[in-house]
Amino acid sequence: MEIRRLRAGEGEQLRVLRLRALRDAPDAFAESLETAQAEGAAYWDALADASEAASERVTMIAVEDERWLGMGAAFLEPDARSTGARIDPRGERREPRRATARTASSPPAAAGRGGTSRDRHGRR
């Protein structure tokens, strides 16, 4: 399994993963399924582009055999924190939950910052 930063040009894959996550666990996100479904391609492309540029927030994805299994996000600031994560239950056999949470709360080495995991309400 590879855990990596979301890249520019991956907006459609992000949309598919996010909608699947919202269907599976609607309470895990501040956004509703209906709101996400209403967003156009430009919205998803902008999220992917912003993640690759990563000046404030990065989105990480877990991929295995070209199948997107999970996602997480973190702010890139001195007290960087995870904003949320979602793992496809079918991928849990290899414990990606732990790896994704660690990676999402620790931005890429180039950013030089660590993090603290929090839920969508800012609680630890």
Structural description of this entry:
The chain is an alpha+beta fold and 124 residues long. The chain has one domain (2-117): 3-Layer(aba) Sandwich (Aminopeptidase). Helices cover 34% and strands 24% of the residues. It has four helices and five strands. It has a five-stranded mixed sheet, with helices on both faces. Helix 1 packs across helix 3. The longest helix is centred in the N-terminal third of the chain and has 14 residues, at 11-24. The protein is globular and about 30 Å long. The protein starts with a strand and ends in a 7-residue tail after the last strand. The model is unreliable at 92-124 (pLDDT under 50).
Mean pLDDT equals 74
* Quaternary structure: single chain
For the secondary structure, the number of strands is 5
Q: Please write the CATH class name.
A: Alpha Beta
**CATH fold name:** Aminopeptidase
Major β-sheet, in short?
A: 5 strands, mixed
Strand and helix order: EHHHEEEHE
* Principal-axis shape: globular
Q: Tally the helices: what do you get? A: 4
- Gyration radius from CA atoms, angstroms: 13 Å
SS content category: alpha+beta
SSE order and pairing:
Elements: E1 2-5, H1 11-24, H2 33-38, H3 41-53, E2 57-64, E3 67-75, E4 81-87, H4 96-104, E5 116-117
Parallel strand pairs: 4-5
Antiparallel strand pairs: 1-2, 2-3, 3-4
Which key terms come to mind for this protein?
single chain; 124 residues; alpha+beta; Aminopeptidase; globular
Could you give a short description of this structure?
It contains four helices and five strands, in the order βαααβββαβ.
